[in-house]
């Protein structure tokens, strides 16, 4: 095969220069690293919990009704926190509780007791119980 011209060796893959081999190895290595990075984004993650405050209604000088929606996964236990504030943004009510989602998306309401008339109320967070 030594009598073949160089262009024939290139065409049929017989020209195995070290630079080409290193180039192919670098490309293969980059593909493997990219695949591992993408897989790491999905391995070991639990369901994502999304909280959306949908509204609040001041019921009296001592209570505010807060409505919210949580998107997640049925059977996941959550820890949540709610606060109510007055016109000066001072906290006038707070509560923490845990509950288990029965459906993937749940809309709930919470009546939060306050020490004085609240201007607003919201659910601060809902996160998975470890």
UniProtKB/TrEMBL annotation:
Q: InterPro entries, alphabetically? A: DUF4307
Among its keywords, does the record have Transmembrane helix?
Answer: yes
Keyword vocabulary terms for this entry: Membrane, Transmembrane, Transmembrane helix
Give a Pfam family name. Answer: DUF4307
**Out of the domains of life, which is the source?**
Bacteria
Q: Which residues cross the membrane?
A: 21-43
Q: What is this protein called?
A: DUF4307 domain-containing protein
* Species for this entry: Flaviflexus ciconiae
